[in-house]
Structures are given as C-alpha cells and as structure tokens.
Amino acid sequence: MDRQDRIMQITEIIQKRKRVSTTDLAHETFCSISTLRRDLIYLEKQGLIRRERGEVILNTFSTVEQNIILREKQHIQEKKSLAKIARDFIGPGMCIYLDSSSTVFQLCELINNIDNLIVVTNGLNVANALAINGNSTLRTFITSGEIQHNSSSVLNSEFENPIINHFNIDIAFCSASGIDQNSVYESNMNQAFSKKSIMDKSQETILLIDKSKFFKKSFFKMNTLTQYKVIISDALPADPISQVVKENNIEWISSDYVKI
Could you tell me the pTM of the whole model? Predict the structure, then answer.
C-alpha cells in the first residue's frame, strides 16, 4: 500500500470512529508507529485531526480545507452520479462556472461534446482537464488570484476579481463542505468568499453535495439553504433539511430516489 492509499485508510478510520488510539490505528493499518506518526503529522497540518495523549481525534469543526488529492479519492461513485445529473442542465452556448471541488470536477469529462460552451473556473484541475480534453469550440477562463496549493484553487480575497464582471454566467455549479437546515458551509474563509462572490453574479446556482456532508458544519457560512433553487445529492434530505426544502420549493434531485 502506498502512502496516499494509507492516508486515505487512516482518514476513513478516524472519520468513522471520531477518536482512536495511535496503537489501535497502527494495528488496523498494519504500519509501524514511526510511519503512522509521519502520516498523522501530515493530517494534523491539514487540520483534519489533533493528537492528544496517545489518541487521534477528528476535527469535526475544521477551518482548514482538505487536500484535493485526498478529496478526489473519497466518494467517487457518488460524485460521478451527481455530475451525471448536473450535465442535463448544461446546453450549447451557455456560460457556466465550475468551482474547484472534487465533486464538480467530475463534470469535466461529461461536457466535452457540448458546442460553444464557455467555462469560468477557479480550479486548476478543472482548467487543465478542459484544456487537454475539451472540444475545439469550448473556451475556458480561469479567475485571477493566489493559488491555494492544498485545494488547487485560485482564490481572490484581497481585491476584486475583474474577469468575473465580464461574464454573464448562466449557472454556477458548486459544492460545499457541509449543509444543514439553515446554511451551506465552507471550511475555508477565502473559498467561501470566492464562491459567494461568483454565485451572487450568476443567474442560478446548483449545489452538488453528497450525503456525507449532511449536518456537517464549518465556521464559514457561504449561503442560506433557501438561496439555492436546485440541489443535487445521492440521497434525500432528512428532517429538518427536508422541511426547509419543501417549504421553499427547492428542487432536490437525488441519484438514488425521485426528486422532491
């Protein structure tokens, strides 16, 4: 098992157990304490865990965005199913925004055959995928700002992003780190501000979010739930989220169930 797979295994165990001793974690991952320690230091720097008295504890209220390499391997099939539904909202000649999330990234391979599409993105991974595989009529624009290495995002919090003002964005496709009946959350303040700025300029925003994000909060509120007309997920929402969805006529489309 290579390091990336091992870190994914460690992350999954900690997310499931919430708290686990380093001895048990080493036993379950079949690695030495010294190897495990290096991986835990890495995860601690990512803000995903903290270490206390021989235990590893999940940071359930993290302000640090998880590394894109880790996120790309999580819930792959769920993300692909959400992207497949989102593809039906995109047509020739549209101008769309794709955020830098690993969920929205799955749309890249599904829009290659759409003619005269304009894509604006803050995702280096999105821009690169479209540059390599996009058809000859597709035009891709990337926002300006500082590159965030963990997320491969371009974020602009210090000054106005002038390129966005020149586009009439039909639909912004975004994901988030969490959702509850009140708000949609991001773990990174600059990421939240960047997405909100673009969503405010778009005619419509579609949220793609898998069930692992339900009732998961972060410090930064990106928007209220009622500001989304369409939400695409891999499961129907539970109360009280479902109640807010019904009361506000939000179209919730699940890959496993009928839309509500």
Answer: 0.70
